[in-house]
Design brief:
696 residues; mainly alpha; Neurolysin, domain 3; Collagenase (Catalytic Domain); 5-stranded mixed beta sheet; 29 helices; 55% helix
Length: 696
């Protein structure tokens, strides 16, 4: 009876004050059924707020129309954004079939609501009136107004009724297909396992890979060893396994996901998404989707994107061809002159070459990169640069036992942010790594600086029964990358949430993250945390020297690989006419000029290319290379003054990390560096000679 009474009294946790440390999400209280109720109520409150705004008898002003939406954060009108943040973050990090089904149900409702807001003529008329006539604004206020007006225009506010209706249908369909794409990819990736019961088939694999595979088998109640398509399982297998046939099986499984004749096939979904986005852009007055996207990017237009990609091909291709040739020579020397290197041989023989050239590989380094020590190292780096400190707080609720929650304090001891870290792969988690937020940063009407709750989600090597989590150098870089994004979020210090932290143009957002990767091969940094997990011995100087010398091993090949993805992205989104080609041959043709290895006819990247199909990087994948030019250029300033130089770090924090999207990214960058970036620092870092300007 008492239990029933308690159940009756229970309230949806989204409808109450959280009453948690720093108002963090009360994950332990939330049930699946809470989400739909909170979403529907959030939409109702949103509509209520808009009605209040458009029915305001007073003349439209910046204060009663624009910031009304951005600053009204008393917890009542921000319900929809709060529940959306929690739900969609969990959908990527800790989903299940029930959540997937709910996402399918909610997506069209949420897209319709977003369209209802952006296509509300009376609301737009007030925004337009403010855009034409307003009080003197601060630069940040002006940026918010311009973004708000432009956001409505780019969402169809200037279209006639017929155009608006058409746009609704297109965006609703695109939204559903993006979701379907992600769900298909997760299911396909998780469905495949390589189950081995014969120990001889583990030949070549290091202990860490064997132990992890044994744990994976145990988790599935199987004997022997299980390998999956998750990167910490897949990568060592492809690098070390001597069983060529099994490497082929793994490679083909990973590179043909979502192409099979089943319900998870993404080929037609991708084709339709490309066409939908083109139609949306053309409806809004742009020739292509790339033109629509690049209007609000540092690159500005497709011509500048292609120039960057072509310049990189010219600079890197000769070296990349030689890198591939060196691998083929070694393979033929080992296997015989008639041996043909196939894609599933590439990681295996490139590793052999790396060993031969530098006597180094990732397994040699693993014992020195124990996860808890790496965490200390990364936190210690932030402390040396910016004076901030991290303290684990077990009173902050988390959504999975793997997740750790920290309070972050500024150099003066004041509270700065909450930082969640989710390190390891599991069944309900998407592959890859990303940074997100459960709460942004803004300054409320009372002047209180509301601090952010940021989260980094990764898929790093798991601990085993025998060993703690021992990372590769590549995984350390991944951690540093996502941590760089989190610093961008944690240092946010702007008035409006929509301009704070990582709310910047896409080709600027990767600068803080890629910048942090530079530290991974710096001896001074490695000295602070790289100790053998058993003996406590520091990473030997000799190994560090080999790391530094081998840093550019296959760098040109890796660069062209990223450039090829950029070319593929642009090939889809510069289409002016209906796209009706077969995806697989189209893909091969699109990136051909960046390719230095043979392409197999059945493999397909597009169907698993989340960035451009479901992740917000459509017509924007070039951003990684664009930001790499920026990060190499920015790090050269640190190299000049000392990698831990606090004055340089403070300037980076003040001019870039804390400013969010309040000014044009190039303005912020020049304020830090004193000049625009050039490709020179990147070429120097990668040991690439500057290409001649002579026409070929």
């Amino acid at each position: 009876m008492n239990e029933e009474r308690i159940e009756e009294q229970r309230k949806n946790p989204f409808f109450e004050q959280y009453n948690t440390p720093h108002d963090t999400v009360p994950f332990e209280k939330i049930r699946l059924e809470d989400f739909e109720e909170a979403f529907m109520e959030g939409i109702r409150r949103d509509d209520e707020q808009i009605e209040k705004t458009i029915n305001n008898p007073d003349k439209a002003t910046f204060d009663n129309t624009i910031i009304n939406v951005d600053e009204d954060k008393d917890g009542y009108y921000d319900l929809l954004s709060r529940v959306s943040t929690v739900f969609f973050n969990l959908l990527s990090a800790e989903t299940n079939d029930e959540m997937d089904a709910l996402a399918q149900k909610l997506q069209p409702i949420l897209t319709k609501h977003a369209n209802d807001v952006r296509l509300n003529n009376r609301l737009f008329e007030r925004i337009k009136a403010v855009h034409m006539h307003h009080r003197k604004l601060t630069p940040e206020e002006k940026r918010l107004l311009d973004n708000c007006y432009d956001g409505f225009v780019r969402s169809g506010a200037l279209l006639d009724d017929e155009g608006k209706e058409k746009l609704r249908k297109l965006t609703e369909e695109a939204s559903m297909l993006s979701l379907q794409f992600s769900q298909n990819l997760l299911k396909e990736n998780k469905a495949y396992t390589l189950h081995i019961t014969d120990e001889q088939q583990l030949d070549g694999l290091p202990d860490t890979a064997r132990e992890a595979a044994a744990v994976a088998a145990k988790e599935r109640n199987l004997e022997g060893w299980v390998f999956t398509l998750d990167f910490p399982s897949y990568s060592p297998f492809m690098t070390y396994s001597t069983c060529r046939e099994l490497r082929k099986q793994m490679y083909m499984a990973r590179n043909t996901v979502c192409t099979h004749e089943n319900t998870e096939n993404n080929l037609e979904i991708c084709k339709r998404l490309v066409n939908l986005r083109r139609e949306i852009a053309q409806l809004l007055g742009f020739k292509t989707y790339a033109e629509y996207v690049l209007k609000n990017r540092m690159a500005g237009n497709a011509r500048n994107v292609y120039k960057l990609l072509d310049d990189l091909i010219d600079a890197y291709k000769p070296t990349a061809v030689k890198e591939v040739s060196d691998i083929e020579k070694l393979a033929k020397k080992t296997e015989g002159k008639d041996f043909k290197v196939m894609p599933w041989d590439f990681s295996y023989y490139s590793h052999k070459l790396q060993l031969k050239k530098f006597n180094i590989d990732s397994e040699m380094l693993r014992p020195y990169f124990e996860l808890s020590k790496v965490i200390q190292g990364v936190f210690g780096l932030a402390n040396r640069l910016y004076g901030i400190t991290f303290k684990e707080n077990k009173d902050i609720q988390v959504y999975h036992p793997d997740v750790k929650a920290y309070e972050v304090f500024d150099k003066d001891g004041s509270y700065l942010a909450v930082f969640y870290a989710d390190f390891h792969p599991r069944k309900g988690k998407q592959g890859g790594a990303w940074m997100t937020e459960y709460q942004g940063q803004w300054i409320d009407r009372k002047g209180e600086n509301v601090r952010p709750h940021v989260s980094v989600v990764m898929n790093l090597t798991k601990p085993t029964d025998e060993k703690p989590a021992l990372l590769t150098l590549g995984e350390v870089e991944t951690f540093l990358h996502e941590f760089g994004h989190s610093l961008h979020g944690m240092f946010a210090n702007t008035r409006f949430e929509s301009l704070s932290g990582t709310n910047v143009w896409w080709d600027f957002v990767e600068l803080p993250s890629q910048f942090m990767e530079n530290f991974s091969v710096e001896k001074e940094f490695l000295r602070t945390f790289a100790f053998h997990y058993q003996t406590g011995e520091p990473l030997p100087d000799e190994l560090i020297d080999r790391i530094v010398k081998s840093r550019n091993f296959m760098a040109a090949y890796a660069c062209l690989r990223q450039v090829s993805f950029g070319l593929l992205d642009m090939a889809y989104y510069t289409k002016k006419e209906t796209f009706d080609e077969d995806i697989i041959p189209f893909e091969k043709k699109a990136w051909k000029k960046a390719m230095v290895t043979e392409q197999l006819p059945d493999t397909c990247m597009t169907v698993q290319f989340s960035h451009i199909m479901a992740g917000g990087y459509a017509a924007g994948y070039y951003s990684y290379k664009w930001a790499e030019v920026l990060d190499a250029d920015a790090f050269s300033v640190f190299k000049k003054h000392g990698i831990f130089n606090q004055e340089t770090a403070q300037s980076f924090r003040d001019n870039i990390l804390s400013k969010g999207g309040t000014e044009h990214p190039m303005t912020l960058y020049k304020r830090f560096k004193g000049s625009e970036p050039t490709i020179d620092a990147l070429l120097k870092r990668n040991g690439i000679k500057k290409p001649s300007n002579k026409k070929k």
